[in-house]
Amino acid sequence: MSETSPVQRRPSGELEASVLAALWAAEGPLSPADVQSALGGRLARTTVTTILTRLHDKGAVSRSRAGRGFAYSPIQDSAGLTARRMRSELDKQDDRGTALARFVSQLTSEDEQVLRSLLEDAEGAEGGAPEGPEAGPQPGAGP
Q: Measured between alpha carbons, how far is 19 from 14 in angstroms, rounded to an integer?
């Protein structure tokens, strides 16, 4: 028996990421053949169709009839999809507080500052978060 090198598997999600990148770069919906072409023809059309179907099942892309097949469009941009995935993972947790605490503890100082700013903006947008002594104790504040 001759020795052959093991088949190199792509990292998980690489094909989906490539297909989504092609859809984000497009100016409109793409058929599986269009996506295949945008990816340089390096994947079989059946593989592209399977990936698009899986992305549709996951709610990452929408599809509409185009002739005998479908044309696909991304539902969200990259940042929106990342946020959705983060929320999905959080929803799987029984102890959300611990999951959030671990997430925050692993943020860089720059990311922590961005998150603080976003939370402050969201609080201000809710209109009427009390300030001053009637606001009560603030998270992280001393007694």
A: 9
d(CA 75, CA 80): 9
Q: Indicate whether 8 pLDDT > 50.
A: yes
C-alpha to C-alpha distances, 100 to 9, 31, 94, 104, 140, nearest whole angstrom: 32, 39, 11, 6, 15
Q: Residue 61: name the closest of 13, 24, 89, 27 by CA.
A: 24
Closest CA to 75 of 38, 20, 34, 17: 20
Q: Are 98 and 92 in contact (CB under 8 A)?
A: no
Q: Position of tokens 């940042």?
A: 79
pLDDT score recorded for residue 140: 46
Q: What's the DSSP call for residue 142?
A: -
pTM of the entire predicted model: 0.66
Instruction: State the chain's mean pLDDT as an integer.
Output: 85
Q: Are 89 and 53 in contact (CB under 8 A)?
A: no
Q: How far is CA 88 from CA 5, 99, 139, in A?
A: 37, 12, 25
Reference 60, options 96, 94, 115, 15; nearest CA is 15
Alpha carbons 20 and 75: distance in angstroms, whole number: 10
